[in-house]
Amino acid sequence: MSRWRNLIIDTWGALSYKPAFQQAAKGRASTLPGPTAASWIPETDRRRLAAYSVLAAYDTNQAAALLGDEGEDRREYGDASLIVDQTLSHLLGETPKIVIGDDQDADADADSGEREHLVQAWAESEHLWMRMQHAERTAVLLGDTVYLLAWSRTKNRPVLQTIDPGFYFPVLTDAALGADEYPERVHLAWEVPADPATGRRATLRRVTYELGPIDDEPNTQRQYPWSPQPSSRTCYLTDAEWDLEHVQRADSIDALSLKHARFRTNADGDVLNRLDLRLDFLPIVHVPNTITGPEHFGQSSLLSAAQLLDDLGAADTDSQRAAATTGSPIIGLSGARLPVDRKTGQPLPVQVAPGVVWPLGESGQLSTVDTSAQLAEMRSYVGVLRDRLSVISRLPGSVLGTVAPSEVPSGYAMQLSFGPLDAMVRSMRLARAEKYALLLKMVMRLYQAGGVLPAGENPRAEVAFGSYLPSDQAGTLDLVVRGVQAGVLSLETGVRMMSEGGFPVPEVGLELGRLRVEKESALARQVEPEETEPADGAADA
């Protein structure tokens, strides 16, 4: 009965079979790295941070270290990292892009065009796609990732940072438990180790973003440039640090005493103690890896395959051992005249090497232990586990490299094999759709706060992920041409199909505009009157 009393069903329950995870989740000393047992970490976050450490160990081929002495010779060949990288590759697709407003409207107004140009330039300057690659890999591996925005007066634009989700501590109230609810206070906290060379002490740093009344007066209002309605709320920034020796065991991250805190200053010399950012939102975007429902945090793409990865590592280890005994078999000798050490009179070790001759007596025998059958069986078992891993991770064998594309009987069969992957990617992109729209909305609002963009409501901006499934471009082009000519496909749908099929169509609306211009030019050339010779006598007249 005690076993079932310890059953906890949550986002990270799939790792409960690991003793190291259980110990760290309960705040005890553990083999996991990181301050999971620190007093300032809320009890509700210990399981999440412990899960992050376990998943990072899988990604770096160090999960065997969590087994203690039993894992010293365990083999790990990068299967976990392969799952993460291939999932990330298909999630992002070939060429993600930013879409602002209705990209189908070729006659967008100048204001939307200005915003689109500005946001596109911002994405290039802030290396959005590179940062997104890093952040999304963290989300696929750990289940969560975090973006942080801030206005830079020097660069005159918003600057973007990716934050390790292990530093992210939102204060979630009962009213903000749903994934759609935004927390009103978020802490970014981490420990800085001591440096004996410089005499620096070990410290805890906490950066807090919090929504509250303007100047702490509930009736004070402010007009923000992105909203026609005045607001009585603003975002306060506090950046403080404590010596770890002054952090009391009873102090959680949300209730640290400011008695021993040291507040940092920004580049303008402002003390970061409830500094008014003049924003009515927290410039932090948390992106979960999966659709979370009532949960705030997402689920790693490795969680459901954790035990299978352990079994695969054990099978690879056994296979390697069997291969060693097959390549260098165990040999038994009897009746052999072995060389003897002249000093000690003891037989010398038998050397197994090409060209070695062992003299045998009349009844001498030589026998070997053949383990090739066991090796073949182990390799077959490893293949079974890899097939199961493909099913669990929803990555077809052609993606994981266990099945060559030439071995697939037909293109239709390969397309069917991508069904689970297609469903998974669509679900993961759905979990991110509103998050990236929120990020780009914050970018435009920061530009308005900095006086770069005019006041007014901003159009909706989204990140459109690229195509990720293998496509037959010739077949797609033929289908579009025949569909448009037959009148069963609109030109807009055809252009969109070509864009999704891998053709270099940067924007659907822009391509439609070009097609319209070319069509009108062709019609104009057709109706131009042909030049004719003048009638007889016209020249004389």
Describe the structure.
Strands 4, 5, 6, 7, 8 and 9 form a 6-stranded antiparallel β-sheet that branches. A 3-stranded antiparallel β-sheet has the order 3-2-10. The protein is flat. Residues 103-108 have low confidence and may be disordered. It has 14 helices and 13 strands. With 541 residues, it is of the alpha+beta class.
Short précis:
This protein is α+β, with helices and mostly antiparallel strands.
Number of helices: 14
What does the largest sheet look like?
A: 6 strands, antiparallel
Helix content: 25-40%
Distance between the termini: 117 Å
Helix-strand sequence = HHHHEHHEEEEEEEEEHEEHHHHEHHH
Shape: flat
Query: pLDDT below 50 for ≥5 consecutive residues: which ranges?
Result: 103-108
The radius of gyration is 33 Å
Mean pLDDT: 84
Number of strands: 13
Q: Tell me the fraction of residues in β-strands, as a range.
A: 15-25%
Given the helix and strand composition, which structural class is it? alpha+beta
Strands, helices and their partners?
Layout: H1 2-5, H2 19-25, H3 43-59, H4 79-92, E1 97-100, H5 110-125, H6 128-142, E2 144-152, E3 157-163, E4 168-170, E5 185-192, E6 203-213, E7 233-243, E8 262-263, E9 275-276, E10 284-288, H7 306-327, E11 330-336, E12 360-369, H8 372-393, H9 397-400, H10 411-417, H11 419-449, E13 461-464, H12 473-486, H13 491-500, H14 508-527
